[in-house]
Amino acid sequence: MTTFAIIFGFGLIAWVISPLFKKSGQVFEVHSQAADLEDMKSRVYHNIKDLEFDYALGRLSEQDFQTIRIAFTQEATQVVARLEQLQKHDLDALIAQDLKKMGDGPAAAVAAGAPKFCMDCGHKNPAKAKFCSACGEKFEEI
Hints:
Helix content: 55-70%
Order of helices and strands: HHHHHEE
Distance between the termini: 72 Å
Number of domains: 2
Number of helices: 5
Strand content: under 5%
Oligomer: single chain
Radius of gyration: 23 Å
Shape: elongated
Strand order of the largest sheet: 1-2
Mean pLDDT: 77
């Protein structure tokens, strides 16, 4: 009887964990690609926002700002175009919508009393906050 229980137990454990080792083919691949592209898109958008912030603070010349912004915008366009192939959305609307979600432009971020946006999670925080109230990331002092 105990031998039967042991064999039954191992069989049950194998059955329960077997889905963890299976790939669901095309669906898994498309989901994985979409997740990777969403991550890349988020990083590029954060780079654009960082660039705009640095330019607003005077850390970049106009020529450097324009050159780097064009490169980042082209990268964002390529990433969103690949996402578009997977999700069938309008490219320009997605870029504009996502940048709008990330908050106001750099001039507002520099203005006194303007809210702070966390560079890690994008959460809107009070102007005097030292840490993000959503993820706990420390804000850099300007």
